[in-house]
């Protein structure tokens, strides 16, 4: 299960998990293998050019300077310059190809993750905070940019350098090589400790980044509520606390890195000094030449530089692996709602049979053994006290969730066996508040069907009686609605939601308290649009207002998760039961 939260012990990435995550990432990079292969070729060429320098210096000293042969010295200098130019050109090309492959990989990963999140059902978003999901798409992916843009390049270059440098050092003098590598056991022991400490440190940083972004997102989204209750100071205090935790996790990760990097650098200096000392002794004995010692020391410097780079790269790998692990947690989360293979018919009865439901991560059932049917073209009102389960019934009828037990079918086909495309075109939900995206009114109506023409959009708006209202705006249906539709009134935003439904032309319309948040004047306008939209369709209405309920063909009373009563308004009032009590309470609440 994909988890969000603090860093638990079992969340820390061990070496096997890190390897598994990286192997999977490498598998995802297959489309860029040609670009990567070209980059590796230039890396090898650049490395050979870099290591040829010390060998040429040693050769020039022994055969040119020491031997007094200016011709050999000049030839060595010319060859050295040519090698440097080739190495420089190769290094420029390797950066170009590596960055091209890296940016392509990040782009593909962003698209794949976003598409996967879009496919998730509502239960996924109930379990995961939107701020943390945004962090996965932004901070976590950006944390991998360093790895794919230069980290992998450094890794390959460092491996090439270490392997080739060791071979050349052994060729020059096995005695000097053994002396210089006496420090390696200390580096290995320090690396193992660094691996344990940095695993936890970098995963904690990723978690704290997600929590910090979540606090930021909630603070911005809920700013109206915050200011309404003068809680700016409290919200700032909570953000400061979250930011302090992020700061501490970063400082801890830096401390973990600092001691290790310093130790490797000190050991490199010690190894160079040891090589010079042993080399001088070997020169005095006549076992090696001065040029050989100088070439060896230069190669040794080239050896410890990639060791330090690998140490730094290990931090980057750990951070990226932790981020990838979280992203793969999203990608491995299968949608709760999967489509079937059957297309739903255009018309049919909607049948609820023995349905029970428990929300994820809860124990108490919300619905128990609920059964009823809604005839083709019938209007059914769902009523009951707050928390009784009526909105849950509506969501199940639109298959926003699947029932824990029982079945819901339309036209004789279980909704779980229906294709999601036909289901979303046959059953449409109009929520209490319609969410508007940035863009124009036309863009927002077109959300229901991306390929709809302007004529079809106007027809949908006309069908609910809203076209004239929106056409009266200066820019007509091309009017920008601004963020979350702030330029439109609540009623106008709801009219856009109804126009989306009209554009789809569904068989079943589920209205989840679609007018409850509107003022009486606006409610009249929206209800007229609803009346037009409901003509000829099966309609499920979740409502608290008596005027809306009385217009329904039948009324289902949901109480404590069960179907308590079912019938017409007059029938249920005559029973003198739960609905009669609700109707009486509604009647008494009306202004006199």
CATH class (first level) name of the largest domain: Mainly Alpha
Radius of gyration: 35 Å
Please provide the count of β strands.
10
What can be said about the biggest beta sheet? 6 strands, mixed
> How many distinct domains?
2
Distance between the terminal alpha carbons, to the nearest Å? 55 Å
Give me the number of helical elements.
20
List low-confidence stretches. 1-12
Task: Tell me the overall shape.
Answer: elongated
Average the pLDDT over all residues and give the rounded result.
82
Q: State the CATH architecture of the largest domain.
A: Up-down Bundle
Order of helices and strands: HHHHHHHHHHEEEHEEHEHHHHEHEHEEHH
CATH superfamily of the largest domain: ABC transporter type 1, transmembrane domain
- Strand order, sheet with most strands: 6-7-8-3-9-10
Decide which structural class fits the backbone: alpha/beta
- The CATH topology of the largest domain is ABC transporter transmembrane region fold
The portion of residues forming beta strands comes to 5-15%
Helix content range = 55-70%
Question: Mind explaining what this structure looks like?
Answer:
There is one protein chain. This protein is of the alpha/beta class and 592 residues long. The chain has two domains: 314 residues, ABC transporter transmembrane region fold (Up-down Bundle), CATH 1.20.1560.10; 240 residues, P-loop containing nucleotide triphosphate hydrolases (Rossmann fold, 3-Layer(aba) Sandwich). It contains 20 helices and ten strands. The strands form two sheets. Strands 6-7-8-3-9-10 form a six-stranded mixed sheet, with helices on both faces. Strands 2-1-4-5 form a four-stranded antiparallel sheet, covered by helices on one side. A hairpin with a 2-residue loop joins strand 4 and strand 5. Helix 2 packs antiparallel against helix 3, helix 6 runs antiparallel to helix 9 and helix 7 runs parallel beside helix 10. The chain is elongated, with a radius of gyration of 35 Å. The two termini are 55 Å apart. The N terminus is likely disordered.
């Amino acid at each position: 299960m994909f988890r969000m939260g603090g860093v638990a012990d079992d969340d820390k990435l061990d070496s096997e998990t890190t390897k598994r995550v990286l192997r999977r990432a490498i598998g995802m990079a297959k489309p860029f293998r040609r670009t990567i292969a070209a980059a590796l070729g230039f890396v090898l060429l650049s490395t050979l050019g870099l290591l040829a320098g010390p060998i040429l210096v040693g050769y020039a000293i022994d055969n040119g300077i020491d031997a007094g042969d200016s011709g050999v010295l000049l030839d060595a200098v010319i060859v050295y310059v040519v090698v440097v130019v080739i190495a420089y050109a190769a290094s420029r090309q390797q950066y170009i190809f590596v960055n091209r492959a890296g940016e392509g990989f990040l782009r593909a990963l962003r698209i794949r993750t976003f598409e996967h999140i879009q496919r998730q059902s509502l239960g996924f978003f109930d379990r995961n905070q939107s701020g943390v999901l945004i962090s996965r798409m932004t901070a976590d992916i950006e944390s991998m940019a360093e790895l794919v843009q230069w980290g992998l390049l450094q890794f390959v270059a460092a491996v090439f350098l270490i392997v080739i440098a060791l071979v050349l050092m052994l060729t020059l003098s096995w005695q000097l090589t053994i002396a210089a590598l006496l420090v390696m056991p200390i580096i290995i022991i320090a690396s193992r400790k660094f691996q344990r400490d940095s695993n936890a440190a970098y995963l904690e940083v990723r978690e704290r980044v997600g929590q910090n972004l979540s606090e930021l997102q909630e603070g911005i989204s809920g700013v109206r509520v915050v200011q309404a209750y003068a809680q700016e100071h409290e919200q700032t205090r909570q953000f400061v606390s979250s930011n302090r935790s992020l700061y501490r996790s970063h400082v801890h990760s830096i401390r973990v890195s600092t001691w290790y990097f310093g130790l490797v650098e000190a050991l490199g200096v010690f190894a160079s000094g040891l090589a010079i000392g042993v080399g001088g002794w070997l020169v005095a004995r006549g076992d090696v030449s001065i040029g050989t010692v100088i070439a060896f020391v230069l190669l040794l410097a080239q050896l410890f530089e990639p060791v330090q780079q690998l140490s730094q790269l290990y931090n980057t790998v750990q951070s990226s692996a932790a981020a990838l692990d979280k992203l793969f947690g999203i990608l491995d989360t299968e949608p709760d709602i999967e489509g079937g293979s059957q297309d739903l018919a255009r018309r049919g009865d909607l049948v609820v049979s023995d349905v029970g439901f428990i929300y994820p991560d809860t124990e108490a059932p919300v619905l128990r053994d609920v059964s009823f049917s809604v005839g083709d073209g019938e209007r059914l009102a769902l009523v009951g006290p707050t928390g009784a389960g009526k909105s849950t019934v509506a969501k199940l009828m639109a298959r926003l969730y699947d029932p824990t037990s029982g079945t819901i079918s339309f036209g004789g086909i279980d909704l779980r066996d229906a294709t999601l495309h036909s289901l979303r075109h046959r059953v449409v939900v109009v929520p209490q508040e319609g969410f508007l995206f940035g863009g124009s009114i036309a863009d927002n109506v077109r959300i229901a069907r991306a390929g709809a023409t302007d004529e079809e959009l106007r027809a949908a708006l006309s069908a609910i009686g809203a076209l004239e209202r929106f056409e009266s705006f200066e820019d007509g249906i091309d009017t920008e609605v601004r963020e979350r539709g702030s330029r439109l009134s609540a009623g106008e935003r709801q009219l856009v939601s109804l126009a989306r439904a009209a554009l789809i032309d569904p068989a079943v319309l589920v209205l989840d308290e679609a007018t409850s948040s509107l003022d009486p004047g606006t409610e009249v306008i929206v209800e007229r649009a609803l009346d037009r939209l409901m003509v000829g369709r099966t309609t499920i209405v979740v409502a608290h207002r008596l005027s809306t309920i009385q217009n329904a063909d039948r009324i289902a009373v949901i109480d404590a998760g069960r179907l308590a009563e079912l019938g017409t308004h007059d029938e249920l009032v005559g029973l003198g039961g739960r609905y009669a009590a609700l109707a009486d309470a509604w009647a008494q609440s009306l202004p006199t």
